[in-house]
Specification:
Length: 156
């Protein structure tokens, strides 16, 4: 994602239908505005237009936004006096990525439910095997030396 001076996100990628926290330390923050609003929309036609008052902190103005569907996340800022920071008339525009909804793909075919169950069973068996090996390594020397039984008798 292209970085923009004075605008920060809490994530590397903006993914549609997810929440993102945005921080703003631009011109309106530097001019000591008391209130700043983010005016935003999605896609080239600015769908789902909304405006939200941002929270003022020592690190800038912050807001959490639910990203909707679209190719881009478009926004600009304004303060209580209707002074705007709109990136010199170009607005701030960031690409949105689609949510990954595909199953695991083998040979360009989605995994069937049956093979997904097999994968899960093999995972569970490997986990059980690792646990058994761990217990064997941990407790076998104690049993052979007799320390395991002594500890158990002392606790009784």
């Amino acid at each position: 994602m292209e970085l923009t001076k004075n605008i920060f996100f809490n994530t590397d990628k903006l993914i549609e239908n997810s929440k993102v926290k945005i921080s703003y330390t631009g011109e309106l923050f530097q001019n000591c505005s008391e209130k700043v609003f983010i005016h935003y929309g999605f896609g080239t036609n600015w769908n789902f237009i909304d405006e939200l008052e941002m929270e003022k902190t020592d690190l800038g103005f912050q807001a959490e936004i639910e990203l909707k569907e679209g190719d881009t996340f478009n926004f600009c800022f304004k303060d209580q006096n209707d002074s705007w920071d709109n990136n010199n008339g170009n607005n701030y525009i960031f690409p949105l990525e689609k949510v990954q909804t595909e199953l695991i793909v083998l040979d360009d075919e989605p995994v069937s439910l049956g093979s997904a169950r097999k994968l899960r069973k093999s995972y569970l068996w490997s986990k059980k095997l690792r646990l058994a090996v761990y217990k064997l390594i941990t407790y076998f020397p104690k049993i052979i030396s007799g320390n395991y039984y002594r500890k158990k008798l002392n606790n009784s």
